[in-house]
Amino acid sequence: MNRREFLKISAALGAAGAVPTLLGGCASKPLPGTGRVTTSPTVCNMCFWQCAATLYQEDDRPWKVVGHPDDPHCEGRLCTRGTGGIGAFLDPDRLRQPLLRVTGGGGQRFKPVSWDEAFDFVADKMEAIGEKHGRDRIALFSHGDGGSHFSRMLQAFGSHAYAHPSFAQCRGPRETAFGLTYGEGVGSPDRTDMANSRCIVLIGSHIGENLHNSQVQTLTRALDQGATLITVDPRFSVAASKSRHWLPIKPGTDIALLLAWTNVLVNEDLYDHDYVAQHCAGFEQLAQHVQPFNPEWAYLETGLDPASIRETARAMAQAAPATLVHPGRHTTWYGDDTQRCRAIAILNALLGSWGRPGGFYIQEKVDLPEYPTPKPPKPASDWKATVQGDYPLVGTGISNKLLEHSVGDDAFFKGWFVYATNLPMTLPGATEQIAAAAQSLDLMVVVDTMPAEITGFADVVLPECTYLERYDDLRNKPERTPTLALRMPAFGPSHQTKPAWWMAKGIAERLGLGEYFPWQDYREVIDWQLRQVGSSLLEMEQRGVKRFPRKTAIYFEQGEPVRFNTPSGKIELYSSLLADVGQDPLPRYAPPDRPPVGYYHLNYGRSPAHTFGRTINNPQLFELMPENVVWVHPAAAAKLGVANGEYVQLENPVGTRSNRVRVRVTQRIRPDSVFMVHGFGHTDERQRLARGVGADDAALMHNVKLDPVTGGTGMRASFVTLVKPSEVS
Fold it and tell me: Helices 147-157 and 500-510 sit at what angle, rounded to 10 degrees?
């Protein structure tokens, strides 16, 4: 028998009942707003933007949630997903009780257990791993606020290994590239000053579809003020429809275009001489490097007209320094992603936009002290050197490398905690490797609000209450205005769910590590921190958001000497750190793989209705977008014999097929490409809305390109074809 079979969490373990429809019904109901209405502050957890909000309750039932007017993340407005946050609380398929894998009756199953039983099992397994292999052999995969509590618990135990999949599967190349160039990253939320921009370049950044709240609002303000928008995308996206220039680039050729733009700025003397002379190092090497890459050369690679390349480069220069070449967010595409992001960073430097109005502002956050606890012990070994020694410039965990070192009897890691991240739909094409890791690990603990696919591999499933039912750490993000925001529970935890801090504390106490969690209630931590900055929990429970005065300037002063956190103290156009580790110090272009005959580039993106796969089962958001579709150009559709609205399956060159997915025939996509929204195609039967609906693009990714600098998984180098409707299985 397998050590750990894949188990689906039976609906019998939750409450029975039909899936609700939230948009109506024939039963007589009181009119909204006619009952007793109360409010409470919260911070939205539907995506990482974390907008502050106010929840309205009517007769102790959730009514609506709206943005907080004092919050710079949202300026009083929530996006589609944020207003659907109540759906996460109401979801009848959410996890309700701790579950333990047990063997008996010829197989394995999940058994409901008490919290004490679950904690005892986890602590015993952790102690056994520590005694047999070492206390540093447990890894944390985390995406969300509560992961910090499990990180604290594991560090106290002796393991510091962690990974946020948002690094190697999303933002890692961008943050690394800008860090190498400017000495610091773009931050989160992004430090883009679009409200003051006169020219904005989006190169694969789907603002308006990703609904990063303040980004959408500031882009809109810039367009209202007449800013020039340039969008580079194989697809005619929402942003492209608002643009003065749409450049439908061949997939995988972004660096060629960026080098050609740099060539024009240098050779036509359009760069910011004073800014480059004062703040930059390596201009001479860059100028020589880009000489071969003129727009005519780029045309052969990108398919873009040389005149359009020159026209858009000149438009950027004319508006500079209030020009922003947007760094994007999801940047793991083709395997050369750090160099692509470096080319974007360099272009911004030539335009003089870093630290200038309309470019990138200087972020600041509240100087909020940490609650005093003991310092954790040092780990017994350098896990980064063992697990990801080939990536010396990366200071955080690389999720796919941690996975790789969890497979096999001699694997470094013997236990996993997985917090709020569904690895099978996050790590491209990795389901088989995750299954192999499940056979090697001695312990897998999954903490989530929903029965995602990763729960099927768990020994223990710990149900977290939703964000409307818990306190979390104060939101203290770098921003234009230093701001604190409070998430407080509007309701007590439903069923047997609990907040992450309570779980981590309970496990720690069984391990004899209670001193690292000296509070009885997390309110104590929040109140102590607030009192150090002249506030209190009582004040924040009443106001939700509090702004603090800036201590630094938001932009560079004219002629101000600035020291950047790079080896030279300058903006490094030529990166000495990359050269030191044997990587290209200047961006180089390599032509991408081309699809086999009959196949198409698989492009994917986001939808305003969903946060990738996390919200598909949300009953409010599901009604807005119940399935994804595949965009196909009319020429490709005619060649394949498929019609608009028909269902097909997608198949990659190694024979993997998707669920059925509806075709959208449109000229808004290049003939050599298809496009679909990511996050659909769930398999867990407890997600009764999402299960089996739409196609999962991650499962089709057969040609994942690893970035040599960050280990990021390039997820846009795969190809698919469409299986005709008559052949759909």
Answer: 10
Nearest to 416 by CA among 381, 383, 457, 451: 457
Percentages (nearest 5) of helix, strand, coil residues in the chain:
35, 20, 50
What is the C-alpha separation between 666 and 608, in angstroms, rounded?
19
| Confidence check: pLDDT of 410 > 70 | yes
**Residues in CB range of 130: below 8 A, 6 or more apart:** 137, 157, 158
Per-residue pLDDT of 262-278, as tens digits, reads: 999 999 999 999 999 99
* Phi, psi angle pair for 362, to nearest 5°: -90, 120
Minimum mean pLDDT range among 88-102, 578-592, 684-698: 684-698
34-93+471-496+519-549 has CATH 3.30.450.20 classification: no
Give 421-467 as a 3 state SS string.
CCHHHHCCCCHHHHHHHHHHCCEEEEEECCCCHHHHHCCEEEEECCH
Return the domain boundaries, the chain.
34-93+471-496+519-549, 99-161+379-464+499-518, 185-363+555-580, 600-727
List the beta strands (DSSP E) in 562-685.
Answer: 571-572, 600-605, 629-632, 647-651, 657-665, 673-677
Burial grade of 449 (CB within 10 A; 0-12, 13-18, 19 or more):
buried
Concatenate the DSSP letters of all residues of 284-349 into one string. Answer: HHHHHHTTT--HHHHHHHH---HHHHHHHHHHHHHHTTSEEE---S----SS-HHHHHHHHHHHHH
